[in-house]
TrEMBL record:
Belongs to the peptidase S8 family. Furin subfamily. Keywords: Cleavage on pair of basic residues, Disulfide bond, Glycoprotein, Hydrolase, Protease, Secreted, Serine protease, Signal, Zymogen. Residues 1-22 form the signal peptide. This is Neuroendocrine convertase 2. Transmembrane segments: none annotated. Gene3D superfamilies: Galactose-binding domain-like, Peptidase S8, pro-domain, Peptidase S8/S53 domain.
Length: 572
């Protein structure tokens, strides 16, 4: 029998499980919940299977347009009504009733709208090509600025603090036959550094509902985000344009889904379930608002899409979902981001070129590894990559820049071993990432040793990704055994959190021994928590393993003054 201990730290309140309290802080002013918003999108579920033509006809009969099925379903469809505004403060009861009156229709849900923000947006930096003439290195003019690929210390960084991609390239890994989808604001697929690696068949525009995910032009170049991320993965090598991608022979797909006033569950779900047997990796550099007070994550359909992707995508091997951990800084915590904190995704944080964490990095136990964003000595030393309209930039930054770098490393491993599952990629990430020179400049988060002798850090995960080591291990890797899920124990009573004190809850488990779900090797641990506090931002939670590994599953968030919503069945 093993005991798992969960510790809560917080102000006076009550919760399911256990708690103590953070030191007194100066609180931000009380906030107010954002007003509810409803879009002109509707989820329509039929009683039985209907084909697209029949769904189209039903939509037309009621003044709607059928955008298409949800996750290739034959019963659930996405309808929009162009006579309704894209956002409004009240549900449209009349449109709901009109659809619900149709005897073929079982369920109608007008889609609420919510905010999803890009991470690490920075303004345009104009193109200036500088030739390189070094043998065996990429000749691309911006390669000398790509310190995250090869850090020689010339840009103020620590030599050899990089992704070690040259060691992977030397083993023949360049990303051939691997496709990464950039779920973002579109891709400039006409860019000379991207056009020959662009996978048009795997691309789609869910903002405009057409096959052409080209960015919408704005004077401030705000929609350059996806193009910059795409270049980090798949920018061509030795073509005299910009820099080189981590996996420069891989394909990149554009999924434009981030460019509308409000996100909906249907857009997210269909984006994450688009062409799952053609797309290997989905890269997301966005998430809930990084304001230190938001607790949000995937809605129902989106969660279904992700779970379906990891279980059925890539012809059963599972899609890999790479997520930027967030740019909320020390006042935020990516455990409160349901995308980055999910066991189904790989959460990636960032470091700067001298080994420190970036000032915008969030901490959380779900972060598996780190890549790179800004330079240390010069804040303008960002990530060099492709930009809109054939241009280049040296100022891409944030965890937005970190996630595509990780996607590129995973593409290298997938080329070498096409049988790797989504879980294999997680194992390889943990086993090959390196502490290197990474450190928390403020000293809050120290490196710790877990029960099996691996170092981890709540900012950096298991360290910086090492492409050379991952490719080498991928060559010899044997797929991990079948996954089993065990419900380790529950506490179904309400426990009070002592004011300025702590509450410790012990859960004893046999790991489902003797059943078909018996767990022999621990891979993921998830605590599902329902908790209410007089001030949610003061609650701190730790999960302690039977071997004594202490994981912070929620840190103090001084901007979060919620006293109503708390956490409801929140997976941590």
């Amino acid at each position: 029998m093993s005991a798992c201990k969960i510790i809560f730290l917080g102000l006076l309140g009550c919760g399911l499980l256990e708690v103590a309290h953070a030191e007194k802080v100066t609180h931000a002013p009380a906030g107010h919940a954002a007003p509810e918003v409803f879009t002109n999108s509707f989820l329509v579920e039929f009683h039985g299977d209907v084909d697209k033509a029949a769904a189209d006809q039903v939509a037309r009969d009621h003044g709607f347009q059928n955008v298409g099925p949800l996750l290739r379903s034959k019963r659930e469809y996405h309808f929009i009504h162009k006579g309704l505004p894209a956002s409004r403060s009240k549900r449209s009861i009349s449109h709901h009733r009109s659809l619900k009156a149709n005897p073929q229709i079982k369920l109608v849900q007008q889609q609420p709208g919510y905010r999803r923000t890009k991470r690490g947006y920075s303004p345009l930096n104009s193109k200036g090509q500088i030739p390189l003439d070094k043998e065996k290195e990429p000749t691309d003019p911006y390669f000398k600025f790509q310190w995250y690929l090869k850090n020689d210390g010339s840009m103020g960084g620590k030599p050899k603090l990089d992704l070690n991609v040259e060691a992977a390239w030397a083993q023949g890994a360049t990303g051939k036959n691997v496709t990464t989808a950039i779920m973002d604001d579109g891709i400039d697929y006409l860019h000379p550094d991207l056009k020959f690696n662009y996978n048009a068949k795997a691309s789609y525009d869910f903002s405009s509902n057409d096959p052409f995910p080209y960015p919408r032009y704005t004077d401030d170049w705000f929609n350059s985000h996806g193009t910059r991320c795409a270049g980090e993965v798949s920018a061509a090598r030795d073509n005299g344009v910009c820099g080189v991608g981590v996996a420069y022979d891989s394909k990149v797909a554009g999924i434009r889904m981030l460019d509308q006033p409000y996100m909906t569950d249907l857009i997210e779900a269909n984006s994450m379930g688009h062409e799952p047997n053609m797309i290997d990796i989905y890269s997301a550099s966005w998430g809930p608002t990084d304001d230190g007070k938001t607790v949000d994550g995937p809605r129902n359909a989106t969660m279904r899409a992700i779970v379906k992707g990891v279980n059925e995508g890539r012809n059963g091997l599972g899609n890999i979902y790479v997520w930027a951990s967030g740019d909320g800084g020390e006042d935020d915590d990516c455990n409160a981001d349901g995308y980055a904190a999910s066991m189904w995704t790989i959460s990636i944080n960032s470091a700067i070129n001298d080994g420190q964490n970036a000032h915008y990095d969030e901490s959380c136990t779900s972060t598996l590894a780190s890549t790179f964003s800004n330079g240390g000595g010069d804040p303008k030393t960002g990530v060099a990559t492709t930009d809109l309209y054939g241009r280049c930039t040296k100022t891409h930054s944030g965890t937005s820049a970190a996630a595509p770098e990780a996607a590129g490393v995973f593409a290298l491993a997938l080329e070498i071993n096409r049988n790797l599952t989504w879980r294999d990629i997680q194992h390889l990430t943990v086993l090959t990432s390196k502490r290197n020179s990474l450190y928390d400049a403020k000293g809050y988060f120290k490196w710790q040793m877990n029960g099996v002798g691996l170092e981890f850090n709540h900012l950096f995960g298991y360290g910086v990704l090492d492409a050379g080591a991952m490719v080498a291990m991928a060559k010899e890797w044997k797929t991990v055994p079948q996954r089993y899920h065990c419900d380790g124990g529950k506490v179904n009573k309400t426990l009070a959190i002592p004011a300025n004190g702590s509450l410790t809850l012990f859960i004893d488990t046999h790991a489902c021994k003797g059943t078909e779900n018996q767990v022999d090797y621990l891979e993921h641990v998830q605590a599902v928590i329902t908790l209410n506090s007089s001030r949610r931002g003061d609650v701190i939670m730790h999960l302690v393993s039977p071997m004594g590994t202490r994981s912070m599953i929620l840190s103090e968030r001084p901007n979060d003054d919620d006293h109503i919503d708390g956490f409801s069945k929140w997976p941590s």
